[in-house]
Please model this.
Amino acid sequence: MRAHLARVDAVIVQAVIAGALSFSHLHDLAEAAGQGGWKAWAYPVSVDLLLVAAWRRMREQQRAGRPAGGPRLWFLVALAASLGANVATAGLLDLDHVPAWLRVVVAGWPAVAFFGGTLLAHGPRTSEEPAASVTPETEPAPPSTPVAVDPPRRDELPAPTPASAADEPPTDLVTAAPAPTSAPVPAIALPPALVDRVQALAAEHRAATGQPADADAVRARLGLPPAMTPSVAAHL
Model:
């Protein structure tokens, strides 16, 4: 327990020191860029708040399994501003003669920070979706054991009763209906070209299958009506 508290205390102290130094560097750079008075103190607060907000939002998106490209971009922007101030105040930049482009960057930072903070605050929030209710699956009923049923013995079967005369239909009233007879359909003469086509299809079918062609099949292949089947059969 003491070792854990010691590690936590060391991290907190390190964070306080790093934050204080970065805060001071941002203040010095803003003041050198022409932002004096309270404005110079507001710049490090803006940078650090954007850095913390972007980090927290990025972690929320990652835990929810969603892309965190937007929060990561603003985290890198705030980190570049903080790191740039630390490097610029390390003697690489003459704070008495700050270049014009740096003055423009420092002056335009509030609008950039406001835009980034607005996007982070009003972006789609990650809400925990309620877990779908799991409906218990109905267990299938165990298969029933078949019950053996003994077939009835012959002596237990009821004796067949003779059919009464009333149940039998009168023979004089039951007459077989004559089957309707249809007159044969006369074959329609086919033109010579169609006859040649019929015989060619029949020969092709016999060569492929070794069996004579069916008149209906040949008629169907030629696209003729069913009434032409006798005419096709006459030339096979």
In short: DSSP finds seven helices and no strands in the chain. The radius of gyration is 50 Å. Residues 128-136, 169-178 have pLDDT under 50 and may be disordered.
